[in-house]
Design a protein that fits this description.
With 244 residues, this protein is mostly helical. The protein has one domain (51-237): Lysozyme, CATH 1.10.530.10. The protein is built from eight helices and no strands. It has helices spanning 3-7, 37-70, 89-100, 107-123, 128-138, 177-194, 198-206, 220-237. α5 crosses α8. It is globular.
Length: 244
Amino acid sequence: MTQNEANSPVPDDRRQTGGNEFTNIRRRSVERPPLSRWQKIAKTVGHGIAASVLLAGGTIWTLNQQKPKFVKPLEMLRLPGTVVQATPVNEQIFRVSSVLRRYTKDTDRADRIAAALVREGGKRNLDPALLVGLLIAENAKLDPTARSNVSARGIMQIMPFHAGKWKDCPSTDLVDVDSNICYGTSILAQYIKKSPSLEKALLRYNGCVRGTNTRNCHTYSGKVLRYADKAASQMLSATFSPAE
C-alpha cells in the first residue's frame, strides 16, 4: 500500500459495521437494536389486525359472488355439461324434501314444506337451496308453531306485522305452512331487490341492521350460505326416480 493510499479516506459503501468472526465480511446495513418487549407485542398485534382485514375482505367478496348463484332458480341443481333446462317440479320437491327429512321424522311435513318452498321460491326467482339454508338457520326443527323471543312465528320465523302485506298469500295465519312460506319468500325477495348484496339482504331478514338486538348477528349471512351450499350438495346426491 502506498503512502497516498494509506492516507486516503475510506469511501462510505454502506458497510459501517464489522463482519463476524467466521466470515470477516463487512455487513451491508447498519445493525438495528433489538425490539423491546412492547414493540414486539405491537408488531404482533399489527400483523394480526392486517390478517383479520384480509380475511374479512375475502369473506365479503365470497358472499358478494354468491348472489348470482342463489337468486336464479335451480342454478345450483344444474349439472355441468348438461343442457340447461328447468328441472321438473316434482323432482325439485323430491330433492328439497330429501334434505328436510334429515331434520324431521314427519315425512308429510317435509313434503309439504318442500312443495311450498319450490312453489313460492319459483314465483320470486329464489333458488330452493338458498331457501332451505334460510329455513334451517331460522327453524332447524321445522316446527310450524315455533315462536322466538321477539315473537317471530312459524316455519320461516315471520314477524306478525308482515301478515296481510302480500295479498297473494293464502291467509294471515303464520302457523299455516303455506302462508308462512309465502310471506317468508316475499320478504326475502323484497330485501334482495333493495339491498346491495345478498349478505345485506339476509341480515335484514334476520333483523340485524345495527347488530344491537342479537349478539353476533353479523355472522347470520355466512351461516345461511353454508347451510345452502350443504343443502345443494345433498339435493344433487339424492337419487330421483320419475316414478316417485
